[in-house]
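Quick note —
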Amino acid sequence: MSRCCGLFCSDDELQWHLALKTHNYGDFSFAISQANSQLEDQGQVFNTPYATYIGVYDGHGGPDASRFLNSRMFANLHRFVTEDGGVSIEVIKKAFRASEEEFLQMVGRSWQSCPHFVSVGSCCLVGVIVEDMLYLGNLGDSRAVLGRNRIPGENEVVAERLTSDHNVKDEEIRNEVINQHPDDSRILVHIRGAWRIKGIIQVSRTIGDYYLKNPEFSRSPLYQQLFPSATPFNRPVITSEPSVGRRRLRPHDLFVIFASDGLWEQLSDEAAVKMVTRNPRAGIAKRLVRAALNEAAKKRKMSYGSLKGTPKGERRQIHDDITVIVIYLDHQFTGENFHCTNAPVDMFSHEPQDYGHGFFP
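Predicted structure written out below.
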C-alpha cells in the first residue's frame, strides 16, 4: 500500500519524498528510504530570509544522536549566526562543538539508566548557502557532491566531490588514525571484512559515541560487557572535529547532492550527477534513492519488487538507510521566509513536519 501525505508520496511504505520545493537560491528535492528497524537517518532544509541551511545526519547504534541533531544543530547554527552577525567557518565549528557538547552531556547524565546511549552516534553533514558562498561542515562519511559544467557555457556536466569521507576504509584516513595513536598497535583491527577503529567503528569523526571518546568509561565494567574484545584506551579514539570549508559558487555550478553513505555505497559520484543532469527536477531525490535501491537489489540477485516487500530491520541486510537532498543553484536570490522542512522521524511514527520560526527556542 502506498503512503501519501499531500506532496509526500511513495510507492514504498519505507520511503518518503518531497518532489520539489523552493529555497532561497533555487529548488530542492528530498527523499529518505528506511532500512533499519528504527530510522537512523535524519535530514532537513531550513530557510531564513538570508540563507539556506541543509543537514544530513546518518546515525548509528540507534536513532537518538541523529534525532538530537535534527532538533539542535540548526538551532545552534542560527544562534551563532545571530551572535556573530553572519555565517563563517568559525560559526560552523561553534555549532558542531555546541551540538557535540550538548549530546555528550545528555549521555553523561543518562547512561546509567539508558546504557545504550553510550554507543549511539551520528555522522553530520551541514551546508549553508549565503549569497554566492557555500559553507560546508562534515563529520563521518556522508557526502556533498557538486554538479557543474566542465567548461562554462558548455553542456557537459561533471562531478566534483566537496567533502572528504572520514572512514577508515580509505587508506588516507587509516594513516591519519594510526599517526594520531602511535602508541596503540591495535587502534585499527580488520574484522568482519573491514578495517575498524578498536575493532568497532569505521568512521573516525562523529557526534556522540561517548564510549569511544571517554577513556574513563573504556575501563568500566559496562564497556567490557558491551565490547569484550575491545581494549581500554587512554585518550579518545575518534574525534568530533569537523572538516569545514567554503566554496564560492559560480554560474556554471548547477546543483549539489547532499546524501548519507547509504546512497554512495550504491552509486558513484559521477552516476549520481549524471542522473540529476538527465532528469526533471521534480522527484529527482526519489529517483536517486530508487537507483540506489535497484543497485542494492542487483547485488543480492533480487528484484526491486522483492526488496520493497522486505520489512524494515531485515532490509538492513540489503542496504542502509538513505537520505538524499538535491539543492539546485539558480543563482537568483528569492528571499524566502523562515521555514524548516524535516523528513519524518520514522516512517510509521511521525508525519513530515514543516516548522516556522517557532522551530527555534
